[in-house]
Design a protein that fits this description.
CATH class of one domain: Alpha Beta
Strand order of the largest sheet: 3-4-5-9-8-7-6
Helix content: 25-40%
Structural class: alpha+beta
Strand content: 25-35%
Oligomer: single chain
Distance between the termini: 77 Å
Organism: Saccharomonospora amisosensis
Number of strands: 9
CATH topology of one domain: Protein Transport Mog1p, Chain A
Order of helices and strands: HEEHHEEEEEEEH
Protein name: DUF3558 domain-containing protein
Pfam family, one: DUF3558
Largest sheet: 7 strands, antiparallel
Radius of gyration: 29 Å
CATH architecture of one domain: 3-Layer(aba) Sandwich
Keywords: Signal
Number of helices: 4
InterPro entries: DUF3558
Length: about 190
Amino acid sequence: MRRWPTVWIALGLAALPLLTSACGLQRSGAGPSVPSVPSVDAAADAEGRRHATEATASAAGRTASADPCALLSPSARSSAGLTKVGTPTTVGDARACDYTEPGGYGVTITIDERAGLADLRVAPRRVRDLRIGQREALLVADERADDGTCAVLLAMGESGSVHVDVSSADFRDTARACARATTVAELIEPELK
């Protein structure tokens, strides 16, 4: 059996990283060689995630730039029983629009760019899943308290939402407040691009 001189073995080991990198392989100290170029499936998956992220960001950007008072056209306001034009306001940092029917009820539409539906599930017994048009939604009300308040929250991507809050002037009839909140949510949902 022929023995290789130690110098040749050392040179061969020293050249191994150069040879493997020239073949498109990387060698880590612990484990087998792996391709340095992503596989076709990984590249397609990354491309799909990039397109989904761009679409979500684009949709959120269009809604984020929307004026909450412009989400209800005059005819939609009439359909919701609102006779007064909305007043721009803010709820925390979020842009909102208040509609007040003196002696009747109030409706507030808020565009919240920081809290998605998953963030808003706070009291499970008061939250019910809905579908409004093409969007997931939540109905939030304490029907046992019958305090005349109700909210419908529409999904806006994963990290945003549009809220429709209704409260009655006499703080009674939660069922009616929820019917009105649902109606307004159905009217504005097509406007949320």
